[in-house]
Amino acid sequence: MYDVIIIGAGVSGCATARELSRYKVKACVLEKEEDVCCGTSKANSAIVHAGYDAEEGSLMAKLNVMGSKMMPQLAKDLDFPYLQNGSLVVCTDEESLPGLTKLYERGVHNGVEGLRIVEREELEAMEPNISDKAIAALYAPTAGIVCPFNLNIALAENAYTNGVEFFFNTKVEDIEKIEGGYRVKTGTGDYEGRCVVNAAGVYADQIHNMVSGSTFTIVPRRGDYCLLDKTAGHHVSRTIFALPGKYGKGILVAPTVHGNLIVGPTAIDIEDREGTNTTRQGLDEVIEKSAETVKNVPLRQVITSFAGLRAHQTGHEFIIEEVKDAPGFVDCAGIESPGLSSCPAIGCMVADIVKGILNPEENPDFVGTRKGVLNPADLSMEERNALIKENPAYGNIICRCESVTEGEILDAIHRPLGAKSLDGVKRRTRAGMGRCQAGFCSPRTMEILARELHVDMSEITKSGGSSRIIVGTNKDRI
Amino acid sequence: MKTYDIVIIGGGPAGLAAAASAKKSGTDSILILERDKELGGILNQCIHNGFGLHTFKEELTGPEYAARFIEEVKELGIEYKLHTMVMDISPEKVVTAMNREDGMFQIQAKAVILAMGCRERSRGALNIPGYRPAGIYSAGTAQRLVNREGFLPGREVVILGSGDIGLIMARRMTFEGAKVKVVAELMPYSGGLKRNIVQCLNDYGIPLKLSHTVVEIRGKERLTGVTIAQVDQKGKPIPGTEEDYDCDTLLLSVGLIPENELSRAAGVDMNPVTSGPVVNESLETSLEGVFACGNVLHVHDLVDFVSEEAAAAGRNASAYVKGSRTAESGREIRMNPTEGVRYTVPSVIRPEQMDDTLTVRFRVGGVYKNCYISVYFDDERVMRRKRPVVAPGEMEEIRLEKAKLLERPDLKTITVKIEEA
Fold first, then answer.
1. pLDDT (tens digit, 9 = 90+) per residue, A61-77?
2. In this structure, how many other beta carbons lie within 10 angstroms of the beta carbon of residue A377?
């Protein structure tokens, strides 16, 4: 029997797993997809919010500010890309100015440091492409941007190397109360645990409702985004939000840690929990609304668009607690924005609740650091040549757009909880994430995956399941 | 740092022809840098025939056409490095490259020939809404899987875009046992060669729907279907015209983009119409001693013209290295593409530097029937060629004679345009 079973390998589940691996607990993570970071955690704004948005006194406010403060050190410890680039909430009409002041006051109350309101002149100097209509903005220097994939992957890898087990392609179908814990039934067998953590994202209500009579509802709230080429990456240097006002919640325009520009999201409540399809209407809204805060966004430079689902709980608050009528069952639900920003703090909070139940001893072997996939571009030419001499695969470029070498791809495949699919490689190394969107590198990456995993080329998938890239051989049905 | 007289970036048809020509023009110190495992570039996956009609007066497959140039390059003893990715070209012509054996290394070149070719536009660039499943490929990626590796990427195929690779792949996928249901083209005309529409679609009963595009992509893991719709004159889908197609594969043949990341980083001036470098009559870019040819300069329709253009670039680079170019008088004639002519290569001509005849290549912006291609020296029309039809899918050319330009010391602008009959 496990001490803890965590359902869901997104940022919340993996942050919880890592925090729990500080203790002597037998823990596992069950994930329905083939890899970590396949749901909400992979498709979002990649923003570390400063913490002025959430209502005073809310759990969201507390965990956001805490998570945002933890993020810089966590990024160092776990070696994932993070940049404190600051954010601006832009006000474009006089009548909304009180709203900006209110946001400032809320931020101060929430404990966000360094907040100030900047006037037009300074704003223009900070961001030359700011909309001509912008009159003032709330500047939050502590806001940041992060690579959500590598944040999630780093948390998972670190949890794994500290002893947490991971089971993929393992979808929870039912949960039964048993003596001293729960039996979690999945498509691939049963798992028994003294505690269960429900970090199931858009499915968290279904998982919760399997054990509790007091139900809640998660509504998948779709957000469409456009991602622009690196040539557009310097269009703004801070994350630009629109002040929520008479035109509703606006669209953000932000650089990414990798130098692209991201624009989005929409907010459309849907029913399908797998409904990650963008729509024409959604993309048009993104394109149109981006102009409200930033001028001349070079939308011809779009290299891809995508949609993510926020796990919106109708009460718009994180639900992090032991379920009253299900002792030992801990919810980590309703983790919508600012969930990514909050995840280091969410992990601590959930782990504290579990600790209170299990009273575990500390794990003396816990190692809190992890090294990410080496990026040779960070090295000097001498260092790089030494690396290539030692491992010639670092001299072989596979993804031309992002200059990703075979060495990095091999590392991504063979490291703990390594990549098994093209998307797995992409999220770990950026191979296929550039302007040609994998047209050039996918056959090459497929060959490496097949060779290293000792499987046939026809077994290679884009993202697990039935997402095979090739369906047969030439003339096989003639 | 090693030095070479000419470093050629890319060992495809352009790089090979440029190398052979430079060598035959008397430059010995030449190095070709090629990122793939063999020379020949994209021709190695173009196993259909139809190459070389102009150059060799016979029909060759892509690999056969490439082989003739590869053999020549080898016979001429030109050095090349395979599996080698060029990472940077500095304005001082220091080329930084990398491979498994040599690591990262730098070469000082006296002249550089850009011959990197082009890449395909992706789905993302079109911003087609829907899911992002497996089963969506650029036509060239599918061509590589099928022609080089023997893998079938899908069985029921819809093709968006009627560029030549898409048309060729419609036929190829049919040969290999897949069902190609339809080719949808956003424009009211095809972007490919007429002969490819006849030989690759019509001969196999594959419908071509002009003024149509894909408006939705279905399937969470693997593609299950697409919706195509008719578009209005602005390219906007017309509600009510949607048609659903069940398919497991969507091939995109929606345009080629010259691959000029290195050129841009080096500071070469670019032409926004071609997405290639701005060049003069010598195919020299805004950086002295840096030349460009082939699809990196502008996307060609036939490889024969690539070879011809690249040979000129090789000759000119050789002349530059040897210092045998005529002294500059500073006189420049500006090419002015207008009224249906989208661009010209070159865009500037220095008459003293040009060969006895100079081929100016261009594409038109629409389909024109019974028209004239007209050339004006300043305000005077000097050439008027009747054409039954011109279309964007086919490259056009005019030839200018050096003697005629030297006769006119005050000539400022050469205008090329389409005139209705």
1. 999 999 999 999 999 99
2. 12
Nearest to B170 by CA among B135, B141, B197: B197
The residues, any chain, with a CB within 8 Å of residue B322's CB and separated by 6 or more, are B26, B27
Q: How many CB pairs under 8 A join A and B?
A: 136
Closest chain A residue by Cα to residue B83: A396
Residue of A306, A473, A474 with shortest CB distance to B132: A306
State pLDDT tens for residues B381-409: 999 999 999 999 999 999 999 999 999 99
Are residues B361 and B298 in contact, defined by beta-carbon separation less than 8 angstroms?
yes
Test A395 with B130 for CB contact under 8 angstroms: no
Beta carbons of B134 and B222 less than 8 angstroms apart: yes
Per-residue pLDDT band for A248 (boundaries 50, 70, 90) equals low
Nearest-angstrom CA–CA distance, B83 and A372: 26
The reported pTM is 0.96
In this complex, the residue of A303, A439, A465 whose CB is nearest that of residue B221 is A465
List CB contacts of B382: < 8 A, sequence separation 6 or more: B375, B376, B404
Whole-number Cα distances in Å, A9 to A36, A153, A306, A353, A413: 5, 9, 20, 19, 18
Using alpha carbons, select from B270, B276, B274 the residue that is nearest to residue B296: B276
ipTM reported for the complex, 2 dp: 0.94
Structure-derived torsion over alpha carbons of residues B315, B316, B321, B325, reported in degrees to the nearest 10: 120
Q: Which two tokens stand for residue B28?
A: 């010995």
Grouping H, G, I as helix, E, B as strand and the rest as coil, residue B71 is: helix
